[in-house]
Amino acid sequence: MRILVVGSGGREHALCWKLAASPLCDKLYCAPGNAGIAAEAECVPIGAEDVEKLVAFAKGEAIDFVVIGPEAPLVKGLADRLEAGGIAAFGPSAKAAEIEGSKGFMKDLAAKYGIPTARYARFTEAEPAKTFARTFTPPIVIKADGLAAGKGVVIAASHAEAAAEIDAMLGARKFGAASAEIVVEEYLEGEELSFFALTDGTHALPLASAQDHKRVGDGDTGPNTGGMGAYSPAPVATRDVEAAILERIIRPAVAGMAAEGRPFKGVLFAGVMVTGDGPKLIEFNCRFGDPECQALMLRMKSDLLPALIAARDGTLANFDLRWSGETALVVVMAAEGYPEKPKTGTLIRGLDAAGAVEGVTLFHAGTRRNAAGEIEASGGRVLGISALGRDAADARDRAYRAVDAIDWPGGFCRRDIGWRAIGR
User: What's the half-sphere exposure (Cβ side, CA atoms, 13 Å) at 38?
Assistant: First the structure.
């Protein structure tokens, strides 16, 4: 098969790494890719949201299957356009991708189909939003309705902070059009986890659990990011918890989306809070998590490609996947200044030494080669130092040995990835 992966981050590098190993893959392209992906696939200089050029390329190169990594092109309808052009695509339609494209739509879906979630309301005006926020005991969660690259959620520690954030989002349009509407909701107490399932519009095939580290600093301090590290499996996801997530969250969502005329085909990513009352939905995403995808791909023993094809074709009912019993852990290295204003163009050395650490795989996220052929940072999150180990402590030790082998004064990382699992 001739395959095209769309995207340029660590998630897409992990997908390319896994797909390149499939005996079904004859030729692999990635648009636009990055310096690390170039080792697995032929990179094509087309932006992930340039729908017209991507469709034209897929037709011109007789692509058999397109795997769409990020949420933005899915929300823009890339999967619809490819399918209309006769090209098979993995990823939901634009109507189905609204499950991530609109926080308000997602919350309304949960309410309609009995999916346990936090109490909430939607607002386009600041004063009613502030009044509603005052009905909660802080902390209070304020979310931009639209896509904001994983940064559109603020946890306000006081009513005053909530009011200021509401003004920033609705008044000053802090996240542009994404915050023309907001969701104000109660804060859920518990332990958060990421749960993934492939779905073909009718059936759901659970993948594996993971736990992300959203805050930029050690000890879960500082602003939210797209994710500073992850590991899989998440110990909080016991067999009973996973069964409850499938029964109360994933399956009702798949059935509900079908009933709404928006059948969801792709990977359904549930952000879940495990509370004293059982698992509750925080949010749905319409794609693999980043950096959770890197951990999942390291642990997946089966060929990924047939599973993605089965999700697209509607044949997941009798499908199964095999997983390593080891733990995978990912440490994200980011450019100084991330998440506000990352400094790009800084040189990164020592990657070969890092990749030589036993059990370690390096996934690139924001890298490029300069005119001299050297690797330099080109984004905020730049590298995903990923390791497989006997348990979380072993995987963490391997990952940080690799981190310490990298010579990059312009980068930083959290030093406590996996602390919950190791603390257990």
Answer: 12
Sign of CA dihedral 103, 107, 113, 114: positive
Chain position carrying tokens 């980068």: 411
* C-alpha span between 419 and 221 (Å, rounded): 14
Identity of the amino acid at 25: C
CATH 3.90.600.10 domain residues, the chain: 327-423
Q: What is the pTM of this model?
A: 0.95
Q: What pLDDT digit, counting tens, does each position of 60-118 carry?
A: 999 999 999 999 999 999 999 999 999 999 999 999 999 999 999 999 999 999 999 99
Q: Where in the chain is CATH 3.40.50.20?
A: 2-94
CATH no. for 327-423: 3.90.600.10
Cα–Cα distance list, 34 to 112, 116, 353, 364 (Å)? 41, 39, 20, 7
| In contact, 418 and 235? CB cutoff 8 Å | no
* Other beta carbons less than 10 A from residue 349's beta carbon: 14
Alpha-carbon distance 13 to 6, whole Å? Answer: 10
The 10 Å CB-count burial string (b at 16+, else e) for 154-171 is: bbbeeeebbbbbbebbbe
What angle (nearest 5°) sits at the alpha carbon of residue 117, between those of residues 112 and 123?
Answer: 75
Domain 2-94 has what CATH class? alpha beta
Sign of CA dihedral 354, 331, 28, 33: negative
Helix orientation angle between 103-112 and 94-101, rounded to the nearest 10 degrees: 100
Q: Return the CATH number of the domain spanning residue range 191-313.
A: 3.30.470.20
Distance CA(311)–CA(296), nearest Å, equals 17
Question: What's domain 125-180's architecture?
Answer: 2-Layer Sandwich (3.30)
Query: Residue 351 belongs to what H/E stretch?
Result: helix 351-355
